[in-house]
Amino acid sequence: MTQPTLSARVPRRVPPALTVALDLAAAGVPVLPLRAGKLPVGNCSSCAGSACGDRPHMLAAGPCRCPRPCHGWAAATTDPHTLTSSAWAGAWRAAAAVAYHPGGAGLTVVDLDNDAAITWARAELPPTRTVATTRGEHWLYRGTMPSSNGVRPGVDIKSHRAYARWLGPGAGPLADLPDAVRALAVKKRAAPQLGGVGAIAPAPVGGQCPHRTPVYLERGIAMAEQRITDARSAIHHTVYRAFLAVLSTHGRCGCLTEAHVERLFTAAHARGESLRHCSVAWANARTALGV
């Protein structure tokens, strides 16, 4: 008599993250696996290091068109066959956490990243279901809207075309999405803020700035923009190094204007950096150089 194989005699252990994901999917919440660092798991070789663009802002074309699910929020699904397929097996074994697509579940998440942001929300927004996070809270509302990062210091909005980490069901009843939250994204699109950069660099002391030529200055800003845009991994570090390079050349002579800094922030924001993180990176670069 033929002996059964080991796999036939010993049931396969379902990864804990997959168990959570299947429960959420059964409740109608689209889910996806996250690797360490709260980044989506790449499920094909071209996705190594996020090279294929598994970040929400790079998905203008809509849902993932790769042979296998791999593009962040667009890979989120409620289909149990997809979640348990061989294409996703490695992703769930490597998963550090589960994420979900709030917009796909009919929700909007107001991500409050610190105590100051929570204090603001308690004063300005209607109470709703609250989920504790590592540094702050997620406030969940019933209803959807465009996602937007950095709508005010320490506050991001995650709904359509974004993903949020699943940290539990939270506490309290769900409230309807208020106009106050929708207005935050509208205000940001109408008038982007630089996060209080101010006093970009000291004015030159006497004489004409040696760098104040259109070609030289434009080349430096354009190179920094391109460096940020081309980054495929270590985005935080790349942004900081680009800011450092610009400030090391132009930070002491008064060349830089708010318009130049806005271009750098815009490039970083397009790669997924919040305006708050841009402001912190800029301030850290100035401190490191003493400008």
Radius of gyration: 22 Å
Largest pleated sheet: 6 strands, mixed
Number of strands: 10
Mean pLDDT reading = 78
What is the end-to-end distance? Answer: 80 Å
Folded structure, characterized:
The chain has 10 helices and 10 strands. The protein has helices at residues 6-9, 16-26, 80-83, 86-94, 115-124, 179-190, 214-230, 235-250, 258-270, 275-289, and strands at 31-35, 39-40, 97-100, 107-112, 129-132, 137-142, 148-152, 155-158, 164-165, 175-176. Strands 4, 5, 6, 7, 8 and 10 form a 6-stranded mixed sheet that branches. Strands 2-1-3-9 form a 4-stranded antiparallel sheet. The longest helix has 17 residues, at 214-230. The chain starts with 5 loop residues before the first helix and ends with a helix.
Which helices and strands appear, and what pairs or packs with what?
Layout: H1 6-9, H2 16-26, E1 31-35, E2 39-40, H3 80-83, H4 86-94, E3 97-100, E4 107-112, H5 115-124, E5 129-132, E6 137-142, E7 148-152, E8 155-158, E9 164-165, E10 175-176, H6 179-190, H7 214-230, H8 235-250, H9 258-270, H10 275-289
Parallel strand pairs: 6-10
Antiparallel strand pairs: 1-2, 1-3, 3-9, 4-6, 4-8, 5-6, 7-8
Keywords for this entry:
291 residues; alpha+beta; 6-stranded mixed sheet; 4-stranded antiparallel sheet; 10 strands; 14% strand; disordered N terminus
What's the quick description here?
With 291 residues, the protein is α+β, with helices and mostly antiparallel strands.
